[in-house]
């Protein structure tokens, strides 16, 4: 009797605490608040009674266009297990709208106008198992939006959106779900989705009614009927549009191709297909001096998408090699091509690199130095200049003959020189005299005669007379 009284009291308290536009009920031990189509524009505020917690909240059919961070926590719904927000005209969900709803397991957001979800939209819901996002306008989902739920999510509903692809980081999670509904989306069945299809095949969990909208070859085909190799990408070609070179050189033309494996890459000269180690046509190379080289490498090999690098080399090019060349890539999904213009300049490249320039400059400097030395030596030999050093004098005269006498005496006294004019004009003599207190040496008389010839050149004659 006492337990029945407590139960009735609790039930009566819960009913009396309901907002006027909502109804309250308790089923299977869960207290729920049903405010369906109650013309609400915000979350109703309640005060939970003693021992009573609201675990279910239904707000379907209300005009909840503006919701704020922490709104459910501030309204008193701290222990929600199930929350339904269907058809509420919601366009944006604040990042912390579901803050502190750590017990929430079932969230229904279907039938709204959600076009995007924030990366950490559900990161604060560690126990969320069921998430219904069907019949919104989602066109893109950030990778962490779903991966943040990888430890708890088991049922995901994405039907009726406008999704064309999903991030590959979400594939491990999606392939282990108990329920995955991807129907009624315009999926692009290309190499970006091949990884997801392969995982779903391995776990035997391909969603029913999931079909392709692109490419055209796979239109309306069911995922269950396709093999993973059918999920291919149309090639995408990129290349430098203009390449410049010079006659006699090797021109290199390069294109990058991103596509699925089993993609063919070709080089064309007009409508002519070029082959490795082949020669150009007569219009390009009438003497067969030139040769083609074609190299294809996988730059970023992947299981479902690969980047190729293709290089066309033309050896010993001439002015007739100029023109347009085409890089073309194709597979069963489609094709793409880029045109490359080869331009030739009729000039000689003087300096190939910095090393060659350095050698040329060094040689030029050496030659200049040699020329300067030769000029200097020729100047000395011409007799127009002499070095004055230890009794050697620069002697010049406009007359035919100049005489200079030098006397050296051995003495302990110093010597003073004197220049006198002898034998007429233009003749000079120098006599040394002894002075007390100076050093002396054995004296000699030297006569230096500068004779100027008729050709303008001078001869020096030295006569020595010992004391």
What is the strand and helix layout of this fold?
Layout: H1 2-16, E1 23-27, E2 30-34, E3 54-58, H2 71-74, E4 82-84, E5 106-108, E6 130-132, H3 143-147, E7 155-157, H4 171-174, E8 179-181, E9 187-188, H5 191-202, E10 212-214, E11 236-239, E12 242-245, E13 251-259, E14 264-269, E15 272-273, E16 291-300, E17 306-315, E18 323-330, E19 335-344, H6 354-381, E20 401-407, E21 415-421, E22 428-434, E23 444-452, E24 458-466
Parallel strand pairs: 2-3, 3-4, 4-5, 5-6, 6-7, 7-8, 9-10, 12-19
Antiparallel strand pairs: 1-2, 11-13, 13-17, 14-15, 14-18, 16-17, 18-19, 20-23, 21-22, 23-24
List keywords for this structure.
eight-stranded mixed β-sheet; 467 residues; disordered N terminus; five-stranded mixed β-sheet; disordered C terminus; alpha/beta; 15% helix; 6 helices
In short:
This protein is 15% helix and 29% strand. It is α/β, with parallel strands linked by helices. Strands 1-2-3-4-5-6-7-8 form an eight-stranded mixed β-sheet, covered by helices on one side. The protein has a five-stranded mixed β-sheet with strand order 12-19-18-14-15, with no helix packed on it. Strands 11-13-17-16 form a four-stranded antiparallel β-sheet, with no helix packed on it.
3D architecture notes:
The chain is elongated. The N and C termini lie far apart (163 Å). The chain contains 6 helices and 24 strands. It is an alpha/beta fold and 467 residues long. It has helices at residues 2-16, 71-74, 143-147, 171-174, 191-202, 354-381; strands spanning 23-27, 30-34, 54-58, 82-84, 106-108, 130-132, 155-157, 179-181, 187-188, 212-214, 236-239, 242-245, 251-259, 264-269, 272-273, 291-300, 306-315, 323-330, 335-344, 401-407, 415-421, 428-434, 444-452, 458-466.
């Amino acid at each position: 009797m006492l337990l029945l009284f407590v139960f009735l009291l609790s039930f009566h308290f819960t009913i009396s605490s309901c907002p006027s536009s909502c109804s309250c009920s308790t089923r299977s031990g869960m207290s729920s608040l049903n405010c369906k189509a109650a013309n609400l524009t915000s979350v109703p505020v309640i005060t939970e009674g003693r021992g009573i917690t609201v675990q279910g909240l239904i707000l379907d059919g209300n005009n909840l266009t503006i919701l704020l961070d922490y709104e459910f926590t501030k309204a008193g719904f701290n222990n929600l297990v199930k929350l339904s927000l269907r058809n509420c005209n919601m366009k944006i969900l604040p990042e912390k709208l579901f803050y502190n709803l750590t017990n929430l397991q079932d969230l229904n957001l279907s039938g709204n106008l959600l076009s995007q979800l924030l990366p950490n939209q559900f990161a604060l819901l560690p126990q969320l198992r069921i998430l219904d996002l069907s019949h919104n306008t989602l066109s893109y989902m950030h990778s962490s939006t779903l991966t943040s739920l990888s430890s708890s999510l088991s049922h995901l509903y994405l039907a009726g959106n406008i999704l064309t692809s999903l991030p590959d980081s979400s594939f491990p999670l999606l392939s282990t779900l108990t329920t995955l509904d991807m129907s009624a989306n315009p999926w692009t069945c290309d190499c970006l989705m091949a990884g997801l299809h392969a995982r779903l095949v391995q776990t035997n969990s391909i969603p029913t009614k999931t079909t392709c909208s692109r490419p055209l070859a796979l239109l309306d085909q069911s995922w269950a009927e396709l093999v993973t190799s059918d999920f291919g990408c149309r090639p995408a070609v990129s290349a430098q549009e203009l390449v410049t070179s010079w006659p006699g050189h090797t021109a290199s033309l390069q294109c990058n191709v991103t596509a699925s494996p089993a993609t063919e890459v070709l080089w064309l000269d007009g409508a002519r297909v070029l082959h490795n180690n082949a020669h150009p046509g007569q219009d390009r190379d009438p003497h067969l001096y030139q040769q083609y080289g074609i190299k294809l490498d996988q730059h970023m090999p992947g299981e479902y998408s690969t980047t190729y690098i293709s290089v066309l080399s033309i050896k010993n090019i001439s002015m007739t090699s100029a023109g347009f060349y085409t890089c073309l890539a194709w597979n069963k999904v489609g094709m793409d091509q880029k045109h490359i213009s080869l331009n030739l300049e009729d000039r000689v490249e003087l300096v190939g690199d910095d090393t060659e320039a350095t050698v040329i400059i060094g040689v030029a400097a050496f030659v200049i130095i040699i020329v300067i030395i030769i000029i200097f030596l020729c100047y000395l030999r011409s007799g127009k200049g002499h070095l004055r050093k230890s009794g050697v004098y620069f002697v010049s005269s406009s007359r035919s003959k100049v005489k200079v006498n030098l006397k050296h005496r051995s003495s302990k006294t110093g010597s003073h020189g004197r220049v006198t004019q002898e034998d007429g004009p233009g003749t000079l003599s120098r006599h040394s005299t002894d002075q007390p207190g100076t050093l002396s040496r054995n004296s000699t008389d030297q006569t230096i005669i500068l004779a100027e010839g008729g050709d303008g050149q001078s001869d020096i004659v030295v006569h020595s007379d010992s004391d």
